[in-house]
Structures are given as structure tokens and as C-alpha cells.
Amino acid sequence: MSDIIRLDSVSQFNDLKGIETRHPKVSVFDYVDAKTKFLPDGRYSCGFYSVFLKEAVCGELQYGRNTYDYDLGTLVFVGPGQVLGIKNKTDYEPQGKTLLIHPDFINGTSLAKKMSSYSFFSYEQNEALHLSEREHQIIVDLFQKIDYELDQPFDKHSRTLISNNIETLLNYCLRFYDRQFITREDLNKGMLVHFENLLSDYYDSDKAQTLGLPTVGYFAEKLNLSANYFGDLMKKETGKSAQEHLHLKLIDKAKEKIFDTEKTISQIAYELGFQYPQHFSRLFKNETGYSPNEYRSMN
Q1: Could you tell me which residues are beta bridge partners of residue 46?
Q2: To the nearest 10°, the Cα dihedral for 78, 82, 83, 88?
Q3: Which residues pair with 5 in a beta bridge?
Q4: Which segments constitute the HTH araC/xylS-type domain (predicted)?
Q5: Counting Cβ atoms within 10 Å, is residue 187 exposed (0-12), middle (13-18) or buried (19+)?
Q6: pLDDT tens digits for the chain (299 residues)?
């Protein structure tokens, strides 16, 4: 496996692209202004947030096990510390825009408190946001506003105006992702059915005893999704988080097993994937209001 190229600062990325660094903690540029059209093939880890607006088929980005070819009007988000693989094609002219935001730039602003809510920074690249023509124009306008501010002499208003425009852009992306979840409803429902089948198989086999309690990450991997995208998909489609679904299934299976009086509560706990029976008893009581023994006696 190739070594990871680490870019800790915004200026390092700008230097690779041949872009002037107007501010050391934030940058926005158009591909046509970059002196270097392509970053060298490789795997990169950046110490800042990156938003890539791809406006043409621009080669392949690789993330995890997936490779994605970009269509017109696609937004990709990469958070600090994530590894992004780049594999260039030789027969295309890259088009689009890039926004880079170092966490230090937004510290102390309202945006800093909200960054954790933008879960799409942890999505995989095949979960990119595809824009309609109108959505694309809104995003481009916000890129241009940020670009305008970076061209002005930096004053006491600059940081607030830039961070506010970044926050507005990311809030629009939340809305557009909600739209994308809706427009892919049929695909999403198929994904949910697959998840339910995988979850049933987990408890019908010996996976719980060998692997322990099921996790959101386990099922996201089986569905070829990032954990955050899978969690957001579940919430949008069902109103419940993926973790809530796992708990509900666990309790349903526990209730079934408790009726088998030949098994002790400890045996049932181990079969369900618990390492310690007392943890099972505590969770069961929190969910049902009764201890496993009380529930068995009542029924």
C-alpha cells in the first residue's frame, strides 16, 4: 500500500495546485485558475475540511473500497484526517471549484458548534451529493461570495462574513441531501429490506456469539455505505436511528429467548452477544421496565 501524503495546512494544498494563498486558513478557487491541473496520483490525508464541486467527469476519487466517476454538478465532502485517493485520467479537462476550511478559521464562530451536524463530511465518495441545475447555481453563488471576501482587505468583518457564507452553503447541502434521500426512495427502501434481512441473519446464525453485539458499522460495511450515511438514511426513512433499530431487534430477540425456561438469563445474554450478563439485564430493564427474570415470571 502506498504511503499517505499528509497536507496539514491550506497553503500546502494551494502550493500543490499552484494557487495563491490569500488566507492561510481558508481558500476557494476555480480549477481553471490552478497552474497545476492534477494532483499526483496517491493517497492524501488533509488537516482541514474540503468541499469539491465537480462540474465535469474528472477522473476517479477512491475512498475505502469504492471508486466513483463524477457526473456534472456533484459535491464531495472530505473531513480532516480522512484518506482520499486520487487516480487521474489523461483525457479530460478538470472543471469545478474547491473550498478548503481549516478548523482554526472557524473556532469561536457559530459554525464551529455546528460542524459535527454536517455528517456528510464522513460520507464515502459514492455517497456524493448530485445537484439539480438550480441547486448548482445556489452553490456556485456562495462559492463566489466567499471568493469575493477573500479578495478584499481583511478587516474585523471578514471572518464573520466568510464563516457565515460557509455555514449557509453547508446548510443548503443539508437540504439538498434531504431531497436526494427522497428522490432515491425506491433505492433506499431496497437498502432497508437488505438491512432487515442482514439483521435477522445475524441473530439466526451464531454471529452474535462469535462477533458480539451488532454494530451500526458492521451493517454499513455490509451495505457498502459509510456509517454516517447509513445512519442518516435510516433516520430519514424510518424516523429512528440505526442504533435504535438494533436495540429494538435485540429486545425482540431477548423476549423470544426468555420464554425458553431451560436457559438461564446468563446463557441468553451470551447468545445475544453480551460479554457480561449484567449489561444485558440493565439494557432489558431500561427498554421494557422489567428485569429479564421479572419479564419471564409475568409471562
Answers
A1: 7
A2: 10
A3: 44
A4: 197-298
A5: exposed
A6: 468 889 999 999 999 999 999 999 999 999 888 888 777 788 888 999 999 998 865 444 443 444 433 345 899 999 998 887 777 666 666 789 999 999 999 999 999 999 999 999 988 767 889 888 899 999 999 999 999 999 999 999 999 999 999 999 999 999 999 888 877 766 677 778 888 889 989 988 889 988 999 999 999 989 888 888 888 888 888 888 888 889 888 999 999 899 888 889 999 999 999 989 999 999 899 888 989 999 888 87
Phi first, then psi: what are they for 198, rounded to 5°? -65, -40
Is residue 49 within 8 A of residue 82, CB to CB? The reply is no
Residue 232 corresponds to which cell in the numbers above?
Answer: 442518516
Cα torsion through 239, 241, 242, 244, rounded to 10: -100
Q: 144: exposed, middle or buried (C-beta count within 10 Å: 0-12, 13-18, 19+)?
A: middle
Domains in the chain with CATH codes = 4-180 (2.60.120.280), 186-298 (1.10.10.60)
3-state secondary structure of 262: coil
- Tell me the β-bridge partners of 75: 53, 129
Cell of 132: 439539480
Q: Give the long-range contacts of residues 55-58, CB within 8 A, separation 24 or more.
A: 55/95, 55/96, 55/97, 55/136, 56/92, 56/93, 56/94, 56/95, 56/96, 57/92, 58/89, 58/92, 58/94, 58/95, 58/96
Question: Taking the mean position of all CA atoms in its chain, how far away is CA 190?
Answer: 20
pTM: 0.71
